[in-house]
Amino acid sequence: MAFPVSSKIIFFLLLFLFLLSATAQRSINVTLGSSITANKANSSWVSPSGEFAFGFQQIIPGGYLLAIWFNKIPERTVVWSANRDRLVQEGSKVQLYADGRLELRDPRDQQIWAATSSRGVAYGSMLNTGNFVLANSSSVVLWQSFDEPTDTLLPTQKLNKGGILVSSFSKTNYSRGRFLFTLQNDGNLVSYTRNFPLDEPIFAYWSTKTTGRGFQVIFNQSGNIFLVAENRSVLNFVSPNEASTSQFYHRAILEYDGVLRHYVYPKSSDSEGGREMAWSSVDFIPSNICTSMGERSGFGACGFNSLCSLGSDQIPHCDCPYGYTLIDPNDRMSGCKPNFVAQNCDEGARETDLFSFIDMPNTNWPFSDYALFKEITEDWCRQDCLNDCFCAVAIYNNGRCWKKQYPLTNGAIDSSLGGKALIKIRNSNATVYSSVFKKSESSTLIIILSVFLGITMFLLLSLLLYVFCFSRQKSKSLQPYQDLPGLNIRRFSFKELEVATNGFKEELGRGACSTVYKGILKNDNIEIVIAVKKLYKLATEGEQEFKAEVNSISRTNHKNLVQLLGYCEEDQNRVLVYEFMSNGSLAKLLIENSRPNWYKRMQIAFATARGICYLHEECKNPIIHCDIKPQNVLLDEFFTAKISDFGLAKLLKPDQSKTTTGIRGTKGYIAPEWFRNMPITVKVDVYSFGILLLELICCRRNYEPDVEFETEMVLADFAYDCYKEGTVNLLVADDEEALGDKRFDKFVMIAIWCIQEEPTLRPTMKRVIQLMEGSVEVPIPPNPTSFGTSV
């Protein structure tokens, strides 16, 4: 069938109108009542140029994001979203209602998001700039997506004061993440870490430093991003650019890694040299986010325990150190966890032989240290970290050693850092606790039943043996041992201890009331080293009284008290059996050996204070030690301090002392009230601890007759004189470690408070610990011989 020319024109005109109506969603205006439903059809409202679209994108199966995206490139890159923190299900709908409301509702008709605007909306429109607007009949914009950005800015878009970009959580998770970029109301343009999942900022890792001047961030049509003052003068070029917006798409995005990047994408559909086109970065801030993080708290650029390094592509890479793995394999910024069992902190089980170090040069976690040592060797640094169960990593650089603990924060690898990280890991051939007990359920059940049956048979045989022995003892008219109920330590025979000590041969120490011998207990080829203390002239000779006192002492349980393992009371023999402390007494460490390092001395001070505090405040019946001194502070193989002889005050006669006055204690450590016929309280131990603390600080005896100046002979007097005159550095001479610790003066002040002559002025041991830890401020101490305000 042939059409005349005029008919052909009419035909094509009608065809054009039909096609236009079929693609109404590409029109400039979105009419009132229009809607889009989330489904696989991916319908959308498209800008006139077709370069941008407004609609639903499926992010995960069944999960949709109401978004704006670049519509002409394969990646369909999202530049704005309405429900980034709450994806909606298929069947959800966005609708421009007749009264001008633009709302997103889920399939149950619950409102998820709405555009806020004044009444009078006549239509909506997806503009060629990437801005979706609601306008009135006079085309005045009443609401626009440009005013509520998510993580992206586009050409012609402005960021006003108070405007914020929040990064996404990851490449594929569009919900709000860990960083924000904002033009503050004070005019400063700043990038912050975010107190995720809350909104408040934590640390500013980049800034234009334009407080009081910044007015608006402009992304102009030429593709330049800059900060202007109110008079429109340029304060800062955030991203100067030479790529034309007529040939390239532009976007600036605060990405999930905290970097604000300016990207361009060629508008030409042709591939360049056979390569597929992609977004390329033309500028970014900060220049190195790995080293820009300067905050002690927070996850940093990568996450706790991880390391950030800048690749050749200028993109930060988050990796785990050797021996660690990602917490979430799908999230590189989730942080890292050790894939080995941490070092045991229990007394006597520090496992130093099961750990070693991996060296990583130019690596640091700059804000996780809890101790710093100067002018030491790398070997010393390694060994000290190995001996410290809290030390996860040591950083060694130019004679300095920083010890780090979990969680490790803001880790980075960069040539500007220098030094090396010594990462402590469990040796691969070491036995890991968790693997020891990995057995099948059936084998575990068999083991449990076997143990149960074995114990049952053992108890039956033991009961028969006890009845047999008891009947024989009764027939011989011998008095049996009658231990007190609840006694939780072993009772030894005197013969056993004679054998263990080889006839009490190897003497470890001697006092006015006891002698200590080294012994070895053997049981099934297992040898346990013990310390055996023979006592003289006890306060109570009766059997039951002695055992009652021993039982009360045995019930004490603290890591800073020497453990009582057992006792013996046969005839006139009264013996106590203790755990063996391989490094002897604190007196030996301070006087006989070379000066121990400052950190070790302070560890001993803290441990001793905690042990005394336990005796005073945490025992069922408070115990006054009465003889705190370096000889009674013993050190185990890891140099952990433990108080010994803490129960002898209960067991000894009143006249048993090293002095001739009938006073309990040792000259130089005895509180003044002993001489004044005053009531004796726990404050006598506080006084003795004050003297011991001064000895630890100064690394000398409390009385030194062979000194250059007579004023330095008595340590307590010398210390107060130095404090009063502001010359406390004289107390430690050339000890740079001590002088380099900002707590040094504070510890001297605490010691002076402890040695106040008036007992009520001395702090309790609980308060002493609080003062040492820094949870309570240390007030200025008075002269120990005067009266003042107590702490």
UniProtKB/TrEMBL annotation:
GO terms for molecular function: ATP binding; carbohydrate binding; protein serine/threonine kinase activity. Gene3D superfamilies: Bulb-type lectin domain, Phosphorylase Kinase, domain 1, Transferase(Phosphotransferase) domain 1. Residues 27-147 form the Bulb-type lectin domain. Pfam families: B_lectin, Pkinase. Its main location: membrane. It catalyses: L-seryl-[protein] + ATP = O-phospho-L-seryl-[protein] + ADP + H(+); L-threonyl-[protein] + ATP = O-phospho-L-threonyl-[protein] + ADP + H(+). Keywords: ATP-binding, Disulfide bond, EGF-like domain, Glycoprotein, Kinase, Lectin, Membrane, Nucleotide-binding, Receptor, Serine/threonine-protein kinase, Signal, Transferase, Transmembrane, Transmembrane helix. GO terms for cellular component: membrane. Belongs to the protein kinase superfamily. Ser/Thr protein kinase family. PANTHER family: G-TYPE LECTIN S-RECEPTOR-LIKE SERINE/THREONINE-PROTEIN KINASE SD2-5, G-TYPE LECTIN S-RECEPTOR-LIKE SERINE_THREONINE-PROTEIN KINASE LECRK1. This is Receptor-like serine/threonine-protein kinase. It comes from Olea europaea subsp. europaea.
